[in-house]
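pls ignore typos typing on phone
zinc ion + seq
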Amino acid sequence: MLILGIESSCDDAAAAVLETHTAGQATVRSSVVANQDQIHKRFGGVVPELASRCHVRTILPVLEDALELAGCKLGQIDAIAATRGPGLVGSLLVGLMCAKGLAQTLGLPFVGVNHIEGHLLAPLLEHRVEMPFIALVVSGGHTALFLVEDFGRYQRLGGTRDDAAGEAFDKVAKLMGLGYPGGRIIDEMARQGDRRRFKLPRARVRNARFDLSFSGIKTAVALTLRSGASDAGAAPHDLAASFQEAVVDMLLTPTLAAAREHNVGTIALTGGVAANSRLRQRLSAEAETAGFSVVAPSLKYCTDNAAMIAMAASYRLLRGERDPFDLDAQASLAL
Ligand code: KG4
Ligand code: ZN
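k done
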């Protein structure tokens, strides 16, 4: 079965062609992403209205590119899937309407996908992962821990009470005057910094072992900057390294605890922040010591993409399920 996947939940317009035979086993024939960082850069964050307008311009060329790279024509596609939430409603509508319009015109099955389910199943695009597994989804919009029991069976164990981890990286980079998106910049600066130089808090949420909070650390960085302590010499690098280390600590503690408690063999790391080199390095080392294997998709499948959306639709389509054409976009769709 050839599935055309479409993703437009935030600031990336993406399309992909996935060839699938059985649930969870698939080949990515193409995956194209049009990134909008240049548009949002000067605002230091995504501007929803600009994001959706840009999607209107780019979604069809992205789709055409995905088909061309996959070496197939629209007539060879067997089903169409698109993200229906959560995300920015204006952005979601562009991809969803495009998918529904195409499916209806071509008489193809259509499935609407939860974006988070896409991230949870992204590791399956390149690896065989035995279920159940623990998945840490860390991006600019989401930070949560899930127990993936089976296709369609996900238990949210906990997550952030305030900012997402990527949002914290971006806000701290903005405070430090480093540019947008800040995660990659902080990651690079931290390589030359002393991660023990600044003592930053590792927040814990009382009576919720798997929950997280990043607002305190953001304030702590702001106070450090205000105190003038980070002005001298290598201090910005040290501050980047100290901040990153604290975020990694906060992410790893509940992840390893969840893996132990649920007795799984594998921990999957996914979402844009999964690109973080220190997070990857420490999770691999600490999980291995604790007896878990770690699966992290290539960076192109960690960040928002449409191949993961097609993957999340594939098991439902293979079962013969389809969604009605009046399925709506939902900004805060729960999993
Ligand atoms: O998954 P994604 O592409 O989009 C969302 O759904 O949010 O994630 C983007 C987020 C941004 O906040 C960005 O700063 C962060 O991922 N990010 C990183 C790194 N690369 C991207 N954060 C930390 N270290 C990185 N290397
Ligand atoms: Zn995402």
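Residues 115, 119, 139, 141, 271, 304 surround zinc ion (ligand 2) (CB under 6 Å). Residues 235-261 form the longest helix (27 residues). more later
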